[in-house]
């Protein structure tokens, strides 16, 4: 953001909330008392999905040059910029999310205590972002899971510690689907969003293995570049029907070496990664397009709708037909 502008301050009272970076929800933002012009226009949503787990999704355009501020609660904040730029300060650290230097990167921020945040709104700037806030109770409940990720462990002990990582195509797909789910107000919307957010958490953790010190000691830079390109190939869907031998030949490894390195890189075997991605695509098609369960099974690579329903239930905790009934 290079243009000069006059920034006015406006304080947000969010001391009892998880703390994202705006104080609005719905079709238009809260309006400041000075001139009756809204801060932003567009669509935003903030939801409490579990105790100490909150979702924030915003697809807006700034309507004023103004600075908004508030308080963040202790925990972990995950920010997924999908489009546009955001100029935000957490504590005493300023970030230009989504700009040329950070385009395509996510951010995890650790807060061991309450601290201030502020955002500079620049009139005419558009942005699309999904954020998750994990409070202390949620983190304590999932301590065993999080302990398997040294990057998170090192972050959590340091106030305002930050980790950036590259958003995968699959993670961007998951985060983007949050907006469609928020737009359809059905009795199952909260359940669907909670499930989707847990999928996002799993993908974030998989992405953080890219910066896991243990993985760094095991995988050389050249191997990591090859694996990043290979995962992008899988995400494109071009290799959905390929055998393990064919996939291994594409990356120039033996099948056993590919499986070992891919598990180090993502935390999953190649086919487990593929299966989860295809099930996710089938779920989005059920939710948004209302396709039949048999068509969803075919989309996910299953010849048997019954086997698909079993795999779907194990992955998402519900039968696929429920999604069609509540569109």
TrEMBL record:
Superkingdom as given in the UniProt entry: Bacteria
SUPFAM superfamilies the record matches: Homeodomain-like
InterPro entries in UniProt: Cro/C1-type_HTH, Homeodomain-like_sf, HTH_AraC, PchR_regulatory_protein
PROSITE patterns: HTH_ARAC_FAMILY_2
Residue ranges occupied by any HTH araC/xylS-type domain in the UniProt entry: 228-326
Name of the protein in question: Helix-turn-helix transcriptional regulator
Keyword line: Transcription, Transcription regulation
Chain ranges passing through the membrane: none
PANTHER family tied to this protein: REGULATORY PROTEIN PCHR
Species, as recorded: Methylomonas albis
CDD domains: HTH_XRE
One family name in Pfam for this protein: HTH_18
């Amino acid at each position: 953001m290079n243009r000069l502008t006059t920034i006015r301050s406006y304080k947000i009272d969010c001391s009892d909330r998880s703390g994202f970076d705006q104080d609005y929800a719905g079709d238009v933002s809260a309006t400041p008392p000075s001139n009756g012009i809204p801060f932003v226009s567009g669509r935003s949503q903030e939801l409490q999905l579990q105790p100490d787990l909150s979702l924030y999704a915003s697809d807006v355009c700034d309507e004023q040059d103004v600075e908004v501020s508030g308080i963040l609660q202790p925990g972990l904040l995950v920010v997924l910029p999908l489009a546009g730029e955001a100029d935000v300060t957490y504590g005493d650290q300023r970030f230009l999310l989504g700009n040329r230097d950070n385009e395509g990167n996510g951010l995890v921020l650790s807060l061991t205590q309450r601290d201030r945040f502020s955002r500079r709104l620049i009139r005419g700037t558009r942005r699309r972002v999904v954020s998750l806030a994990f409070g202390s109770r949620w983190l304590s409940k999932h301590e065993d899971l999080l302990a398997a990720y040294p990057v998170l462990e090192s972050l959590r002990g340091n106030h305002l510690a930050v980790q950036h990582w590259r958003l995968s195509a699959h993670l961007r797909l998951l985060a983007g689907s949050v907006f469609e789910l928020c737009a359809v107000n059905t009795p199952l919307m909260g359940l669907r969003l909670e499930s989707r957010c847990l999928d996002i958490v799993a993908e974030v953790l998989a992405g953080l293995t890219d910066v896991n010190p243990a993985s760094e000691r095991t995988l050389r830079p050249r191997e990591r570049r090859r694996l990043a390109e290979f995962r992008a190939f899988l995400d494109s869907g071009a290799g959905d029907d390929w055998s393990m031998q064919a996939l291994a030949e594409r990356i120039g490894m033996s099948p056993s070496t590919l499986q070992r390195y891919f598990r180090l890189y993502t935390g999953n075997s190649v086919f487990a990664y593929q299966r989860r991605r295809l099930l996710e695509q089938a779920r989005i098609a059920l939710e948004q397009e209302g396709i039949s369960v048999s068509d969803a099974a075919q989309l996910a690579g299953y010849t048997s709708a019954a086997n698909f329903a079993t795999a779907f239930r194990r992955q998402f905790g519900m039968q696929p037909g429920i999604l069609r009934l509540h569109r």
